[in-house]
Amino acid sequence: MMIVMKSTATAEETAAVVERVNRAGARAHVSPGEELTVIGAIGNRERIARLRLEGLPGVDSVVPILKPYKLASSELRHGRASVFEIAGRRVGGPNFALIAGPCTVESREQTLTAAYAVKDAGATMFRGGAYKPRSSPYAFQGLGRAGLRLLAEAKAQTGLPIVTEVLDAREIEHVAEVADVIQIGARNMQNYSLLTEVGLSGIPVLIKRGLSATLDELLLSAEYVLKEGNHAVMLCERGIRTFETAYRFTLDLTAIPVLKQLTHLPVIVDPSHAAGRRELVTPLSLAAAAAGADGIIVEAHPAPDDAICDGPQALPTDGLDEYVAQVQQAAAVAGKALSAVG
Ligand code: PEP
Ligand code: MN
């Protein structure tokens, strides 16, 4: 049972609900939020129902949620989409987020050139990894903290919010200094202690779907972040493993409308990692936007042929404005417009 508190509820009113739940022998889990505080009551459903919590001061509604994920479920918000702000840009609902940038931060010149190109093309956020999850331990692992400093410079110069991945909970405090959105990569989607720590950081999170993860598993991963009171969670479909070998992964477009039914959280699509090939990126992006995605995270590089990683799937930043214009049109089909760049 989820008890949704009114936005005007006081800490005392929340404490009174918790006490009543605990007295009934159930466990209360409070997820405080800026917009909405939710109390999960875990225990005997009938006993909790008999507490008549609806009548208590500060309580907005009591929602029985049958799904294993509670805070992520669309039932929690009665089908209304979550909308939140990231450095002044709105995400979710009618807003379309266009996140672009290189796979990895390589150098000052590459980072700044890419960031300016992304801004000039009209994209809304800049992506770039300082910590890279590589299949081979001998492959480039990212510039680490030096890379974070380059991202900070790109942010200071262009004003674009930064999306960057964290691989290790010990680095969160450093990543938090620059990240407007912390990315949890596909390979870490089920790293539950990392999800909890990122939840506690309070920084918006983009969780990528694991290579072989079901949508329920993705939503349960989001639940780990949400339960720490961090409500700014975006889900990301980035292609899953199938028997097909003609391209890198299979972009699961069906996940977009299905996630929209299951959850109130924004759904972002990564066409780059799904395709693995540059020429597939635009058609997949258009399909995702028209299918109702809340945004796209795409790899773009000033010189893709020289990229340290994921060059074959990167769009050249030269020409990115044309790509953005096309995606904007497809997003409009689904009733969404690019969130304004501040
Ligand atoms: C990335 O965004 O560069 C990345 C490594 O993505 P994924 O975790 O989806 O493979
Ligand atoms: Mn990449």
Summed up:
With 342 residues, this protein is of the alpha/beta class. Helix content is 33%, strand content 19%. The strands form 3 sheets. Strands 7-8-9-10-11-12-13-14 form an 8-stranded parallel beta barrel, surrounded by 7 helices. The protein has a 4-stranded antiparallel β-sheet with strand order 2-3-1-4, covered by helices on one side. Strands 5-6 form a two-stranded antiparallel sheet.
Broad structural category: alpha/beta
What general form does the structure show?
A: elongated
Describe the sheet with the most strands. Answer: 8 strands, parallel, barrel
| Topology as a string of helices (H) and strands (E) | EHEEHEEEEHEHEHEHEHEHEHHEEHE
Q: Say which molecules are bound, naming each kind only once.
A: phosphoenolpyruvate, manganese (II) ion
- For CATH, the homologous superfamily of the largest domain is named as Aldolase class I
The CATH architecture designation of the largest domain is: Alpha-Beta Barrel
How much of the polypeptide forms β-strand, as a percent range?
A: 15-25%
Q: What's the CATH topology name of the largest domain? A: TIM Barrel
Q: Please give the count of helices.
A: 11
- The CATH class name of the largest domain reads Alpha Beta
Distance from first to last alpha carbon? 40 Å
**Whole-number average pLDDT?**
95
Strand order of the largest sheet: 7-8-9-10-11-12-13-14
Radius of gyration: 20 Å
Query: How many beta-strand elements?
Result: 16
Helix content: 25-40%
How many domains make up the coordinates? 2
- The low-confidence parts are none
